Amino acid sequence: MAETKKKVHFIIERQDSPTSAPYTEEFEVDYRPALNVVAALMEIQKNPVTKDGKKTTAVVWECNCLEKVCGACMMVINGKARQACAALIDHLEQPIRLAPARTFPVIRDLAIDRSVMFESLKRVQAWVKVDGTWEVHNDAPRQNPKTAETAYEISRCMTCGCCMEACPNVNAGSDFIGPAPTVQAHLFNLHPIGAYSKEERLNALMDKGGISSCGNSQNCVQACPKDIKLTEYLAQLNRDTNKQALKNLFNK
């Protein structure tokens, strides 16, 4: 008697367009060791047939690096926002439920538009203004060794959006720009050249939707796939903006 192949059962929330209603479809793929969610979606893409044998369209999702670096494959897996490339089937309870992160506009199926995060990075000036170079090594500004470790940790942010999906203060009724863009302001304030624009970043964070909109729920730090100490840096930014507010008051 032929041995029955082990199957992996998926329930996927789908949406045909940004304005259409969501619906679910169920799929099965053959199990294999070290299978992750992205690889399983690729199998469904090859042969988009539902669990009950109905031919359908291929599920749409995003992926790029496939090694937990780019953040593109973020989706809600069994109720938790995470990276699909790092979600191993062996570690997930079945049926595996996949859904888009609805903090962001849905483009189609599991593909979302994360533009709001990139626009927020512009708001906090998440870059270093460099208009020249230094020919002599000793003349170039150096990163303080005491802050280099913190800067490196924050720089690992993938702008995936897991923290945004987990944050209760990021929703349609709020204008909070979210944990990831906010903490990036701290990263560039630590940079020896970026520090020249520190006041501008802090003033931007004092505007509507900035640091004061953070409710300190601390969901973000639990959701971050890179284990960035988001709440610690949000607290530091809160102190920095308070100091800047006093400075602005006395400089009037």
Automatic annotation (TrEMBL):
<dbReference type="GO" id="GO:0022904">
    <property type="term" value="P:respiratory electron transport chain"/>
</dbReference>
<dbReference type="InterPro" id="IPR017900">
    <property type="entry name" value="4Fe4S_Fe_S_CS"/>
</dbReference>
<feature type="domain" description="4Fe-4S ferredoxin-type">
    <location>
        <begin position="148"/>
        <end position="179"/>
    </location>
</feature>
<dbReference type="InterPro" id="IPR017896">
    <property type="entry name" value="4Fe4S_Fe-S-bd"/>
</dbReference>
<keyword id="KW-0004">4Fe-4S</keyword>
<keyword id="KW-0001">2Fe-2S</keyword>
<dbReference type="InterPro" id="IPR004489">
    <property type="entry name" value="Succ_DH/fum_Rdtase_Fe-S"/>
</dbReference>
<dbReference type="GO" id="GO:0009055">
    <property type="term" value="F:electron transfer activity"/>
</dbReference>
<dbReference type="GO" id="GO:0051539">
    <property type="term" value="F:4 iron, 4 sulfur cluster binding"/>
</dbReference>
<keyword id="KW-0560">Oxidoreductase</keyword>
<dbReference type="InterPro" id="IPR050573">
    <property type="entry name" value="SDH/FRD_Iron-Sulfur"/>
</dbReference>
<dbReference type="GO" id="GO:0051537">
    <property type="term" value="F:2 iron, 2 sulfur cluster binding"/>
</dbReference>
<dbReference type="InterPro" id="IPR025192">
    <property type="entry name" value="Succ_DH/fum_Rdtase_N"/>
</dbReference>
<dbReference type="GO" id="GO:0008177">
    <property type="term" value="F:succinate dehydrogenase (quinone) activity"/>
</dbReference>
<keyword id="KW-0479">Metal-binding</keyword>
<keyword id="KW-0816">Tricarboxylic acid cycle</keyword>
<dbReference type="InterPro" id="IPR009051">
    <property type="entry name" value="Helical_ferredxn"/>
</dbReference>
<dbReference type="InterPro" id="IPR012675">
    <property type="entry name" value="Beta-grasp_dom_sf"/>
</dbReference>
<dbReference type="GO" id="GO:0051538">
    <property type="term" value="F:3 iron, 4 sulfur cluster binding"/>
</dbReference>
<keyword id="KW-0003">3Fe-4S</keyword>
<keyword id="KW-0411">Iron-sulfur</keyword>
<dbReference type="Pfam" id="PF13085">
    <property type="entry name" value="Fer2_3"/>
</dbReference>
<protein>
    <recommendedName>
        <fullName>succinate dehydrogenase</fullName>
        <ecNumber>1.3.5.1</ecNumber>
    </recommendedName>
</protein>
<dbReference type="GO" id="GO:0006099">
    <property type="term" value="P:tricarboxylic acid cycle"/>
</dbReference>
<dbReference type="Pfam" id="PF13183">
    <property type="entry name" value="Fer4_8"/>
</dbReference>
<comment type="similarity">
    <text>Belongs to the succinate dehydrogenase/fumarate reductase iron-sulfur protein family.</text>
</comment>
<keyword id="KW-0408">Iron</keyword>
<dbReference type="GO" id="GO:0046872">
    <property type="term" value="F:metal ion binding"/>
</dbReference>
<dbReference type="InterPro" id="IPR036010">
    <property type="entry name" value="2Fe-2S_ferredoxin-like_sf"/>
</dbReference>
